[in-house]
Amino acid sequence: MKLRLSIISLIIMVLFSCNDKTVDDLKPIDINEKCKELIQIDTRFGIDLFKLLAQSEEENFTISPLSVAYALAMTYNGAVGETKTAMEEALRINGLIPDEINTSYRSLMKELLEADPKVTMEIAQSIWYRLGFNVLDDFKTINQTYYNAEVNELDFSRSDARDIINGWIETNTHDKIKDMIDSVDPSHVMFLINAIYFNGEWKSQFETKNTQEKSFTREDGTAINVDMMQKTDSVNYFSNEIFSAIEMPYGRGNYNMVALLPGEGKKCSDILEVLTPENWTSWMRSFVMTGDVNIWLPKFKTEYEVKLNDVLTAMGMGIAFTPVANFSGINGTGDIYIDYVQHNTFIDVNEKGTEAAAATVVAIKWNAMPLSTEFHVDRPFIFAITEKETGAILFIGKMVTPSYK
What we know:
5-stranded antiparallel beta sheet, Antithrombin, Chain I, domain 2, disordered N terminus, 28% helix, 6-stranded mixed beta sheet
């Protein structure tokens, strides 16, 4: 059966599995109960996000729930009232107060970055805001303190403004994600960005000489030839009536790839039907060490990009994308809302290991178009002379062909 490459999106959700059966040198993860609760919440958020996208995506796709969560968590720090409540629902963070959320994300980031010296794991945040746009000091300080976010004021009218922001994304994804922001238009006032980069070598690598061209049967029954990697290894294994799964460690073993293969007569949709946070946790705790297993895994490289507005609206935060949103915690006055949430990913799985990158951009815009620094009346216009206190209109007219003689 076809193993959807989209399953690899769950890598980020298994960043530190409780299972340590395959390795003896796992780094202990020291986090408090609130951080553990946040990780469970993020698992629910990631699975819900993944399942909603899987309903419409028929081809390969990979997401990083962690990247989306970090970008939205920074934005959440500026949400107020109904908008804040809606974002809590979408992020599944109901019941946690902002300080617990921010502190837990800081703790999680620290542990992920230090989990395995044999694996490259990088997480970066930045906030870019329009020159002259007022941003509250509290909003900047919170995101700098808890998310280590770079905060940059930038003249968005510059011809290279887009290139500067995209350059930051490219640098922090090791050039794997390029030209993510298409344009910076006059209504944009802020971009909040997360970037994640992962590069891990298999604890037990595949030998290039063993890679062969083999048949791969897609869900519609058609067969294609793919480069199939092969190795024999002892791995953690789990199976049930719907799928079988193996866990392949990187580096010292804190990071793993989990591959879920539908059983005979089953499809990925059958896995999705039973994929819940509770089941996922149960499955991850049920892996057992096997003897030598002959593993064949497709070698693949893929990129994916998606605008998450519709999915996040379905998850409960639709108000954040409308002019009635309240993000007064960002600038003190509001009159801004989320224009879009863009998510891009890259993944390369080969004999040596896995390289993956993700970036999430939250674009904030004004409710109304800002006044340009230039007001050039170079076309027909309407004019009026009024009295301010009474509102009386003294004169009103339309000028189509100005003339002064």
